[in-house]
Design brief:
The structure is a single chain. With about 190 residues, the chain is of the alpha/beta class. The protein has a single domain (about 1-190), classed as Rossmann fold, CATH 3.40.50. It contains four helices and twelve strands, in the order ααβαβββββββαββββ. It has helices spanning about 1-20, 25-45, 65-70, 145-150; strands at about 50, 75-80, 90, 100, 105-110, 125, 130, 135-140, 160, 165-170, 180-185, 190. Helix 2 runs parallel beside helix 3 (about 65-70).
């Protein structure tokens, strides 16, 4: 059974990567504006003073405008740094310099904090390949965010950032997969 789910996830991820790859620059620009506006709205609505988020890759919905907005307003931003042992370290982000972690993912260049630094944030913004209408998140297969969220004693609201078409009826899931409280898309905010 688990092999079937793993294969189903692998096929769905490949399809989603291809769909993201062919999005036009005009569509990306429009999506960035929508995602930024809705992340700002969510952050303001929740009264967030600190957020754990991520620097988007070129094929993901763009989070950089939102992160710069948050930094400009004095909101503390923590970004993940992938470790080879499967855990995430966190680093404060100032909206400036970026580097790459062990997997080539963009990360800040500031001091590295340990995995428990995320325990002090008011909101967690995570990447996803797809999310279903029950809040089940399907990530990209490394399990970093599932491990992090599953280990937290007191987890603040968690929102995934995806394109509108990636909010679907169901996604394949396994025991370790973690649900999110909502999604932010170019078209709006959906809460579960």
């Amino acid at each position: 059974m688990s092999d079937d789910i793993t294969n189903e996830k692998r096929a769905l991820r490949a399809e989603l990567r291809e769909r993201r790859r062919i999005i036009t620059s005009d569509e990306r620009e429009s999506a960035t504006a929508g995602v930024t506006r809705h992340l700002e709205e969510l952050t303001s609505e929740l009264g967030v003073t600190s957020v754990a988020a991520y620097l988007s890759t070129p094929d993901e919905p763009n989070t950089r405008d939102f992160l710069h907005w948050a930094c400009d307003r004095g909101i503390r931003v923590l970004l993940p740094i992938s470790r080879e042992d499967g855990l995430l370290d966190w680093a404060p982000y100032d909206g400036k310099d970026e580097d790459e972690d062990v997997f080539g993912m963009p990360t800040p260049t500031t001091e590295v904090l340990g995995p428990i630094a995320i325990n002090s944030v008011d909101l967690i913004v995570v990447p996803a390949a797809s999310v279903d209408r029950s809040g089940m998140r399907m990530g990209w297969g490394r399990g970093y965010f599932d491990k992090t969220l599953g280990s937290m004693e007191r987890c603040p609201p968690v929102y995934a950032v995806i394109f509108d078409s990636e909010l679907v009826d169901t996604v394949p899931s396994e025991v370790h997969d973690q649900r999110v409280n909502g999604v932010v898309t170019p078209g709006g905010i959906t809460k579960f």
